[in-house]
Amino acid sequence: MAKNKRGVDRQVKQDEIVDIAGELFLTQGYEATSMAAIARGAGVAPNTLYWYYRDKDDLLISVLDRLLEDGFTRYAALADKPLNELVFWLLKELKQAGGLVATVHARLGESVALRQWHDQFHALMGQLVAGHLAAHGIDGADSRTESAILSFVIEGLLSHPTDQASQRRIIDRLLLGPVSYSAG
Amino acid sequence: MAKNKRGVDRQVKQDEIVDIAGELFLTQGYEATSMAAIARGAGVAPNTLYWYYRDKDDLLISVLDRLLEDGFTRYAALADKPLNELVFWLLKELKQAGGLVATVHARLGESVALRQWHDQFHALMGQLVAGHLAAHGIDGADSRTESAILSFVIEGLLSHPTDQASQRRIIDRLLLGPVSYSAG
DNA sequence: ACCTGAACACCGTTCAAGT
DNA sequence: ACCTGAACACCGTTCAAGT
Fold first, then answer.
1. Would you give per-residue pLDDT tens digits along chain B (184 residues)?
2. Do B178 and A178 touch (CB under 8 A)?
3. Strands of chain B, DSSP E
4. Fewer CB near the last or first residue (10 Å), C or N of chain B?
5. Average pLDDT of each block of 10 consecutive residues along chain A (184 residues)?
6. In strand D, which positions have an atom below 7 A from any protein CB?
């Protein structure tokens, strides 16, 4: 499509590449997707990708940014639902992102750019959760504790397929409190 | 070392390979460790590894088994400490395994053998935790819920470096109960 | 500025052959 | 049964050259 050549539309071409890369990453997985395959999909030579992106990780980051952006657009519509509703929604959202969550964690040590993206992502989620918790009078260290637990459990649920019922029990246990077994 | 040739010691040679593979996986990471590097360390030709192991994932599984075995040996010494102590101990243990946790999750889709190992590992941990929770009168679905949450949070803490204090807050929050904000 | 063909330095794995 | 040299089919990335 959209030919480039004269400064017509660098942005468009870039979007096109991210499109196809995202689709392949999500369906085949990051490792299983070769730069050659992405190039083929975008109708360019493999090395052309390096004109637009520093390397494969950089391309991954652009895909993640796109996914995040789309997610936020959808989030806006239900920002003031109760927290547990939001968590279930978020789970469904991230399920789409599938193996990419695991991929990001596995590559944290191999790409500083990716690590930065990851840290920012968690900071962002932390702020969001903090906002919701503040409505319940929870802030400071407690808020950060809750937020960390929530994100860990969400990530866990993503990488460990869990049936709907167990999933609900887990979220409810977190948000409504435990079957108390404090202090043996 | 230990020459093979006549049926002297297949087991010994295999241990030798797992040794060096484990060391490299832990220090350089799975992806960053080539079969060639492992072979070099073991003093054999690269393709010789395929006499002992089906592929790289199979070798990873052997390394994981070794790590697990060692862990259990150390666990035996403190099996009846209180649960939160055990969790802290486990965290320290798994920290050694470092990026391998993320590696396993990232490769779940690419190796059925690895997925089987992973599922068995969680089942095993689940049983262990269930034993401890039973002492607090928790079993059935509740026990499985607690166990799932615990393992997710442990995995989360592993892949997201957290200072000692926050870590303790998180574990205590889980085992001693939340700052209650039930039912808005 | 944008794109390419060709090459580089790998990678995991297989095969046919040797002992 | 154990081990190897050589090759296969990739891989991400770089470079020099073209428009």
1. 455 554 558 889 999 999 999 999 999 999 999 999 999 999 999 999 999 999 999 999 999 999 999 999 999 999 788 888 899 999 999 998 989 999 999 999 999 999 999 999 999 999 999 999 998 889 999 999 999 999 999 999 998 989 999 999 999 998 876 544 433 2
2. yes
3. none
4. N
5. 59 95 97 98 97 98 97 90 89 90 94 97 93 90 93 93 92 74 34
6. 1-7, 10-16
Structure token pair of residue A66: 């796109």
How confident is the model over B16-27, as pLDDT tens digits?
999 999 999 999
Picking from B96, B114, B97, the residue whose alpha carbon sits closest to that of residue B106 is: B114
Tell me the one-letter amino acid at B4. Answer: N
Reduced to 3 states (helix: H, G, I; strand: E, B; else coil), residue A54 is: coil
Please state, in angstroms and rounded to a whole number, the distance separating the CA atoms of residues A178 and A157. Answer: 18
How far apart are the C-alpha atoms of A97 and B160, rounded to whole Å?
19
Q: How far apart are the first and last CA of chain A?
A: 67
User: Least CB-CB distance to A122: which of B135, B145, B160?
Assistant: B160
Which residue has tokens 């929050």? B173
Q: What is the separation of C-alpha A16 from the centre of its chain, rounded to a whole number of angstroms?
A: 20
Taking CB atoms and an 8 Å cutoff, what residues of chain B touch A140?
none
- Please give the DSSP secondary-structure letter assigned to residue A182: -
- In this complex, the residue of B32, B82, B144 whose CB is nearest that of residue A184 is B82
Rounded to whole angstroms, the Cα distance separating B130 from B150 reads 11
Q: What is the pLDDT of residue A25?
A: 97
Size of interface A-B (CB pairs under 8 A): 133
Q: Report the gap between the CA of A153 and the closest CA in chain B (Å).
A: 5
Q: How many CB atoms lie within 10 A of CB B82?
A: 12
Instruction: Give B158's contacts (C-beta < 8 A, 6+ positions apart).
Output: B91, B94, B95, B97, B98, B101
DSSP string, A85-150: HHHHHHHHHHHHHTTHHHHHHHHTTT-HHHHHHHHHHHHHHHHHHHHHHHTTT--HHHHHHHHHHH
The shortest CB-CB distance from B103 to any of A106, A151, A170 is to A106
